Amino acid sequence: MNKKQGQLLSERFEVAYNQVHDALKDIVQINDERFVVLVKVGAKKYQIIETYKKDLEQYARLRNAIVHEKMEVGQYIAEPNAKVVSHIEKIANVFSRPNYALSIATKNVVYFDYHDSILKVTAAIKEHGYSKFPIYKNKKCIGLLTAGSILKWMAQNMESSLVNLADIDVSDILLYEKEHSIEFVTKEINIFEVENIFEKAHKKKRKLEGVIITEKGQTDETPLGMITAWDLIEIDYTVD
What we know:
It is a single chain. The chain is of the alpha/beta class and 240 residues long. It is built from 9 helices and 8 strands. Helix 1 (3-28) packs parallel to helix 4 (82-96). The protein is elongated, with a radius of gyration of 25 Å.
C-alpha cells in the first residue's frame, strides 16, 4: 500500500467512525458522548450494538492511534486496511439508516374476529405453528388469544376424555384469557425504536407480549406485521 492509498483509507475510516459516533449519540442518548461509553451502554440496550461491540471497541483504539499518534504530517503510526474500512463503513450505514421494524416482523399476521369459530384458530395453530393471535371485535383489536387459554378451556370442559369444539367461538375462550400487554406502532417505526418500546416495558416490569405494526399505528387497522421479544433476539445483524 502506498502512502496516498493509506491516507485515503485513513480518511474513509475516520469519516465512517464519525458517522457511527453520531448515530450512537442519537440512539443511546446519554449525558456522556464518549464513543466507548456509548458502545458499552448501548450494547446493554440494543442487540444490534451488542453485535458490533467488540469491533467498535477495536476501531476506537485504532481511531485514537490514527488521530492522536501521527509520526508527522500525513504519516500515521497505524493505518486501517481496506477490509477494516469496508466493514466500519457498512456498520455506519446500518446505524445511520436502521431498517424499518417491519423488515423483521412476522408478516401475514393471522388474526381472528371475536365471533369466529375456535376451530378456525386450532386450524391456524396446526398450519402455522403460532401460539398467539390478535383478536378483533367491531374491527378493533381487543387483545390476544393464546394456545394456553384454549388448553385451559379444554381442561375445564372435558367430558369422558373428549372435548367438543364445534359450537365454541373465540369469545368463549377469551373468558379464560388473561389480559396481555400489546403495543401498536406505525409502519414507519425502525428497529431501534421497537427495542426501546420493549426496554421501557421491561423497566416498568410489564411483560410486553408483542408489537403490532399497522399503517398508522391504530388499533382498528389491519395488522401488517407483529414483533415479539424473540424476534429481536433472533435478528441477524451481521454484515460481511
